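Side project, low priority. Logging it here so it doesn't get lost.
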Amino acid sequence: MRILPKKKSKITNLAISHIKDNLKSYIIVSLIFLIGIILGVLFVNNMNEKQINEVETYLTDFTNLLKNGNKIDSLQLLQKSIKNNFVFTFLMWFVGSTVIGIPIVLGIIAFRGFCLGYTISASTAVWGVGKGILFFITSMLLQNLIFIPCMLSLAVSGIKLYRSIMKDKRKENIKFEIFRHTVFSVIILLLLLLSAFIETYISTNLLAIYIPYL
């Protein structure tokens, strides 16, 4: 009896097709993001003793608050996360819709990579490699599994729009590409809202479980 292979869903096929059609752009933005991470790590590694002490004080004060029974306000965190993701998506959509906005988009990608590299390096510098990585896994990993691909996809969508504007001057096609970029941004926003809920109700609980071991 022959077992037929499972058919891929339409969403999976669309995603694979999108990545294949824009592979060069994905490689570029991924490299820029990686460079940002490396710069964040290097920045922490080259901090002076005073700066390291300031980072250590901030992180230990934060964890001590949680150890002493202070709970994170879930509603406030959710509202803040949703607001930040909305502002981020709107900014990426807006600058990605302009001809001169692509350098800004790439700058945002590099900055987010820098922040991630800084956070990972700072936590490992304060608690050691093992505990620092576990801190990142429990507090930041899950939401970033959604956030990072969404961020890179938004950047690629903006690059695609830019190339379409440069190649094709017809208003009808430009309007269609702007509409496509807008719809794509809305879909990404919905996914980022999901990451906000994960950050609020899953990551914070994982962090609360792990905090006593820091």
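Brief comment: DSSP finds seven helices and no strands in the chain.
Revisit when time allows.
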